[in-house]
Write a structure and sequence with these properties.
By secondary structure, this protein is an alpha/beta fold. It is built from 14 helices and 21 strands. α3 links the parallel β2 and β3. Bound molecules: S-adenosyl-L-homocysteine, iron/sulfur cluster and FE3-S4 cluster.
Length: 473
């Protein structure tokens, strides 16, 4: 049993990060573990977690498990969890409650918890005390060890917990089973060293480790051969890509090299305003296959709160960067993340946030009420704002944000824009759906033959979160 330790997770080791190309290994016995058995994975959280889910699926299929359509049909259930806010915790624990009932009816069922919550010391303490029926727990740093951890748990029939607190190296040979045939997530880096005071990610994902550009470019070449149209470069703070490499090679170099592969669409998330360089803006402008879409989290518009959050920029610096991007890329869409109710946030601070929203008129924004996370500096900050007040601020902010989303969408009426058609719409099964270059969701009337292609769509009507159009060819 190896359990997580918050103090160790907080540390940043100085040593170089090694790239390991052969550490994912499966023995012939492990290859047979899942014969005749089905698995189900429920993933919560960000795109990075979704992509980890794609790795875990491929590993389980390597062990001969087959995917089940619903959790009640599975012999192995894994919850790939998120720690970012309390409600993410609540969702996972709620699901565990339902699975416990299932396990009572199906004693052979294997249940595991992985992802960011597994990296939290307090969560694992809770599991040891109250969730003794859980079979396995593994973290974000040792996904490549899943065959060993699962084999151990199945053989000995005891609770197997293996969570490393220190991140370790970059393992390159983990298989992947992608959810889409047309667009792919690609990790360009792991971890985060920014330590924003409210955020748990630097503890659950470890120190920043960039992948070797050679491996990233090879992965993209393979995806192009397989017919993929779009790649999204993933990192908690992609603009800091390369800063930890021994060579002088940054995000602008990577973006340029990825653009030169000729892949049709390139996206990247998330950009921290701190590391966004002029050179990056130039590269985005130069290459038409780098999509004009930038997610640029603001978090707060108040300089006092930004400082308490440890964000390293002021309201004025954010606005300067925003206008610079808009000037260079007038057609681009810019979205953001905002937290309300950070400890000590006054009405004046909140009005500063609204002021930035009014100035930037974001294409859309993810808005959150501050949630205190054990182990982060903000956990201990005095929080005098009432829940009612926080809810009121969130509602007011959302109203403004939605108004601008609708306004941004209205600019598209009557225009023809490129959309990568991904499949049928979930809401209306006879309608196709896809995203514009600027990341707007479009419901499209058209023939199934367009699925997997980038086609011109004439926009006829818009709503707050989506648009309606028809194929223009
Ligand atoms: N790496 C990304 C964000 C990852 S988390 C970045 O720096 O932009 C996604 C969003 O969740 C954050 O941008 C922030 O707005 C929100 N978030 C993170 N921690 C939070 C917390 N403790 N309470 C509320 N929202 C939080
Ligand atoms: Fe969290 Fe800040 Fe890192 Fe984003 S940059 S993951 S908000 S610590
Ligand atoms: Fe959640 Fe971990 Fe992503 S905390 S947002 S799953 S990095």
């Amino acid at each position: 049993m190896i359990i997580p330790n918050l103090e160790k997770a907080r540390k940043r080791s100085k040593g170089p990060v090694l790239i390991r190309e052969h550490d994912y290994k499966v023995s012939p016995e492990e290859k047979r573990l899942g014969i005749g058995k089905k698995y189900f994975i429920k993933t919560y959280g960000c795109q990075m977690n979704e992509h980890d889910g794609e790795n875990i699926k491929a590993i389980l299929e390597d062990l001969s498990f087959e995917e089940a359509d619903q959790y009640i049909d599975a012999d192995l259930i894994l919850l790939n969890t998120c720690s970012i806010r309390e409600n993410a915790h609540n969702k996972a624990f709620g699901m565990l409650g339902r699975i416990k009932h299932l396990k009572q009816q199906k004693p052979g069922l294997i249940v595991g918890l992985c992802g960011c919550m597994a990296q939290e010391e307090t969560v694992v303490e809770n599991i040891l005390e109250k969730y003794k029926w859980l079979d396995l727990v593994f973290g974000t740093h040792n996904i490549y060890r899943l065959p060993k951890i699962l084999a151990e748990s199945m053989k000995n029939n005891h609770q197997e917990i293996e969570v490393m607190s220190i991140e370790g190296d970059v393992v390159e040979n983990i298989p992947v089973k992608r959810d889409s045939k047309y667009k792919a997530w690609i990790n360009i880096m792991y971890g985060c060293d920014k330590f924003c005071t409210y955020c748990i990610v630097p503890y659950t994902r470890g120190k920043q480790r960039s992948r070797d550009p050679k491996h990233i470019l090879n992965e993209i070449q393979d995806l192009i051969k397989d017919g993929y149209q779009e790649v999204t470069l993933l990192g908690q703070n992609v603009n800091a890509y390369g800063k930890d490499l021994s060579i002088s090679y940054g995000m602008e170099n990577l973006l340029e090299d990825v653009a030169k592969t000729g892949v049709k669409r390139i996206r990247f998330v998330t950009s921290h305003p701190w590391d966004f360089t002029d050179r990056m803006i130039d590269v985005i402008k130069t290459y038409p296959n780098i999509m004009p879409y930038i997610h640029l989290p603001l978090q707060s518009g108040s300089n006092r709160i930004l400082k308490l959050m440890g964000r390293r920029y002021t309201k004025e610096e954010y606005l300067t960067l925003f206008y610079k991007i808009k000037k260079a890329l007038p057609y681009s869409s810019i979205t953001t993340d905002i937290i309300v109710g950070f400890p000590g946030e006054t009405e004046e601070d909140f009005l500063e946030t609204l002021d930035v929203v009014k100035k930037c008129k974001f294409d859309s924004a993810f808005t959150f009420i501050f949630s205190k996370r054990v182990g982060t500096p903000a956990y201990k900050m005095k929080d005098l704002v009432s829940v009612e007040e926080k809810n009121k601020r969130l509602q007011e902010l959302n109203q403004l944000v939605n108004q601008y989303s609708k306004l941004a969408n209205e600019q598209y009426i009557g225009k023809t824009v490129p959309v990568l058609i991904e499949g049928y719409s979930e809401k209306n099964g006879t309608c196709l759906m896809g995203y514009t270059d600027t990341m707007k969701l479009v419901n499209v009337v058209g023939d199934a033959k367009y699925i997997g292609h980038i086609v011109n769509v004439a926009i006829e009507d818009v709503k707050t979160w989506s648009m309606d159009g028809k194929i223009a060819e």
